[in-house]
Specification:
Blueprint (H helix, E strand, L loop, with lengths): L1 E11 L2 E7 L14 E6 L2 E6 L10 E6 L7 H6 L6 E4 L14 E7 L3 H14 L3 E7 L8 H4 L8 E5 L10 H4 L7 E7 L1 H13 L7 E5 L23 E5 L4 E5 L5 H7 L18 E5 L2 E2 L7 H6 L2 E2 L5 E2 L3 E4 L2
Parallel strand pairs: 7-8, 7-10, 8-9, 10-11, 12-18
Antiparallel strand pairs: 1-2, 1-6, 2-5, 3-4, 3-6, 12-13, 14-16, 14-18, 15-17
Length: 324
């Protein structure tokens, strides 16, 4: 749908909030905390989490970090000015908030604050108990500090800044020291931060179903990665996929993704991030064993082997039969 960029506001170093609304002032489709939208900008399609209170139906607000190492979407966003018309999707939510939780722990790393800010807004409005732990490189890079200093947020928010030294950094074992069946943990941020939180939650005994995460992008492999590691096994080689609807067989060469091979054969699968993060290309698997390489599916969903993200995942068997 078409919306107008009505306001662009700098909220931290290299972070701007973009307010999007209908040009005629009519309400936008409703959303719940944790939702994101696809934004078409500069020839890219990028996913940005909604960070405002879900009850604010007149506008969507997204926070965007200008990252010089990105693939171009954030740079294009930061070049926009108020009055620009944009095409966006309706909200999608792969990171929903359990509003009935007895207690909610929100853990944000950097720009990962955006979906958690909407959660904090929704929980605060509903009078539900929560705590927010926000890690950033330095105070100037922490967004929404003014809002988080207001009553309802200030007493529940804890900041941790790398610039203040090791002693000021978050102690995940302490924050997650008391797992409870009725409590839920939500984490968003860089992949390394999320992995550290998940590992700490596992060590301290949190039930896996009570720990929720959302990645913004896939982690980059280290420059000195061993060519013989599990990520570079024979599973990177060629395989085939069969399209269940017509029994057509498509060859997937080594170094080519399933989506690329399908596209070369004239079959288009909807994609967005192409990193296994957003879930747009999720496809049912009817036979064969996928080699999951995404950051979207849970461990339980991967173990079922009945779906995969063809933008990045491969096959552990010579053939996969896909519901296409």
């Amino acid at each position: 749908m078409k919306v107008t960029l009505t306001r662009k506001l700098a909220v931290a170093t290299d972070i701007c909030v973009f307010e999007l609304a209908n040009g005629d002032g009519s309400p936008l489709p409703a959303f719940a905390a944790g939702a994101h939208i696809d934004v078409h900008v500069g020839g890219f399609v990028r996913q940005y989490s909604l960070c405002n209170r879900p009850s604010d139906g007149a506008a969507y607000r997204i926070g965007v970090l200008r990252d010089p190492a990105s693939r171009g979407g954030s740079t294009a966003m930061h070049a926009l000015s108020a009055g620009t018309s944009l095409e966006i999707s309706t909200p999608k939510n792969h990171f929903p908030l359990d509003e009935d939780a007895q207690h909610t722990i929100l853990l944000a790393g950097g720009i990962g604050i955006t979906p958690l800010m909407a959660m904090a807004e929704q929980l605060n409005e509903a009078g539900r108990p929560f705590e927010l732990h926000y890690c950033a490189r330095e105070p100037e890079r922490a967004a929404f500090r003014e809002r988080l200093a207001e009553p309802g947020f200030a007493e529940r928010t804890h900041f941790y800044f790398d610039s203040e030294g090791p002693a000021a950094r978050i102690d995940l074992e302490r924050v997650l020291a008391q797992p409870r069946d009725g409590a839920h943990v939500y984490v968003c941020g860089p992949a390394g931060f999320i992995d550290a939180v998940l590992a700490a939650a596992a060590r301290t005994g949190w039930p896996a179903q009570n720990v929720h995460r959302e990645y913004f992008s896939a982690a980059q492999p280290p420059a000195n990665a061993d060519a013989n590691t599990a990520a570079n096994t024979a599973a990177n080689g060629a395989f085939q996929v069969t399209l269940a609807s017509c029994q057509r067989v498509i060859d997937v060469p080594a170094g080519t993704t399933i989506v690329e091979a399908l596209r070369a054969g004239g079959i288009e699968v909807p994609v967005s991030c192409e990193q296994g993060v957003c879930g747009t290309c999720l496809t049912r698997v009817l036979a064969g064993e996928p080699d999951h390489r995404d950051l979207y599916l849970t461990d339980e969903e991967r173990a079922a082997n009945d779906q995969l993200l063809p933008c990045c995942s491969r096959a552990r068997t010579p053939m996969l039969v896909l519901d296409l």
